[in-house]
Amino acid sequence: RTIGIIFYEDRNFMGRSYECMSDCADMSSYLNKCHSCRVESGCFMVYDRPNYMGNQYFMKRGEYADYMSMWGWSGCIRSCRMIPMHRGSYRMKSYERENFGGQMYELMDDCDSIMDRYRMSDCMSCHVMDGHGLMYEQPHYRGRMMYLRPGEYRNFMNMGMSGMRWMSMRRIMDSWY
């Protein structure tokens, strides 16, 4: 089965559509607006600004007939990124300060409250060694989120996430595909 997501200009899968099977940095050349989508298979991050910027939301297989009211978004999906499946362990080092400063904790599983588990008041940078994950601004995987793939994240504030505090983290599991 091919991995793909279909975007529709109007709610309830109406209007013009655009099928995407990989990353798309700017959907405006395909659709004027996007108010619903259907994930045929795979997992995707969608963004309300071009070039994978702005608010982001995780989507797995399913139908999203009116995602804007569901998420409280005022804008439309403007870019999307396919999340590759990862089988194996998850490893991330989380740091209290930017540029890998301050206290460091290694996460290898989901953490519903970084503050409670590690007594860490803030998470300003991280290094994802293995796997893909989602960071959330509130405990128990709620609030705005950010997708983390393997790599170094030296300063979340430079990623357009200023003023946000990351309070929980969840692995993207292969069973979600």
UniProtKB/TrEMBL annotation:
Record's keyword annotation contains Chloroplast: no
Record key words, sorted: Eye lens protein, Repeat
Alphabetized Pfam families for the sequence: Crystall
Keyword flag Repeat: yes
Membrane spanning residue stretches: none
Gene Ontology MF terms: structural constituent of eye lens
GO biological process: lens development in camera-type eye; visual perception
Ranges of residues in domain Beta/gamma crystallin 'Greek key': 42-84, 131-168
InterPro entries: Beta/Gamma-Crystallin, Beta/gamma_crystallin, G_crystallin-like
Family label: Belongs to the beta/gamma-crystallin family.
Function per UniProt: Crystallins are the dominant structural components of the vertebrate eye lens.
Protein name as annotated: Beta/gamma crystallin 'Greek key' domain-containing protein
Source species of the chain: Monopterus albus (Swamp eel)
